[in-house]
Amino acid sequence: MAIDLRGCVLFAGAALMAATPAAVAAPPTLAPEVEREVVAPEGVTFQPSSSDEEGAVDRFAEYTLALEKRDFAAAYAMFRLSFQASNPRLEWEMNLRKRETLWADGQIRPLRLSWYLDPAGQPAGLYAAFDFRGDRKDGTMDCGYVVVHRAAPGAGWTVVRIDTSEVPPDLIEDGVPKADVLHQLPCYLGKGIATAF
After folding, report:
1. Among 60, 128, 154, 188, which is most exposed with the fewest C-beta within 10 angstroms?
2. What pLDDT tens digit does each residue of the chain (197 aa) get?
3. Beta strand 141-150 with 35-39: parallel, antiparallel or unpaired?
4. β-pair partners for 164
């Protein structure tokens, strides 16, 4: 799996990141054409900083790369403790193992990054939701989102919600999910409905 984080530049996983010392490695960034939105409480002006985006993208990339490598222990360790409590490790891992091609084959392309500051009914902090599309070599695709959370500035990012659907070949036409399938998908495809930006 490759994660398309800089337009046409793909990086193929942990090998590239492991080959570069952490102090020198540039954090992954999203391409300018990735759609972005910010939701903040009424009356609050908020704009995420570049370090906010770097930290959130980093956690998203680490999580998806761990799943690509089938390193379920590493992926699960990135969950917020309350998310772990509602997703027992054995059951979560068994469900992923049943879906062998999910995450393991294809190219993950973030399509939209949505920021939420202190959303009502959730633990306080900053949330970043990544809607993505994953294209496989066989012409099928995955579609979903990963939400990461940081409780306070300087704290680490944790994965707090995920959802992914596989779109089989009979529901795809010319590289795009058929119209009657779109409303069932858990991701926002936006301009990513096309095969390229």
Report:
1. 154
2. 455 443 333 333 333 333 334 444 555 678 888 889 999 999 999 999 999 999 999 999 999 999 888 999 999 999 999 999 999 999 999 998 988 777 766 678 888 999 999 999 999 999 999 998 888 877 778 888 999 999 999 999 999 999 888 887 787 777 777 777 776 776 666 655 544 43
3. unpaired
4. 144
Distance CA 6, CA 178 (A): 28
Helix segments in 35-146, DSSP class H: 50-68, 72-77, 81-86, 89-98
Q: Is 106 left (phi over 0), alpha (psi -120 to 50) or beta?
A: left
Token pair in block for residue 88: 């027992």
How many Cβ atoms are within 10 Å of 57's Cβ, its own excluded? Answer: 23
Question: CB count, 10 Å around CB of 151?
Answer: 14
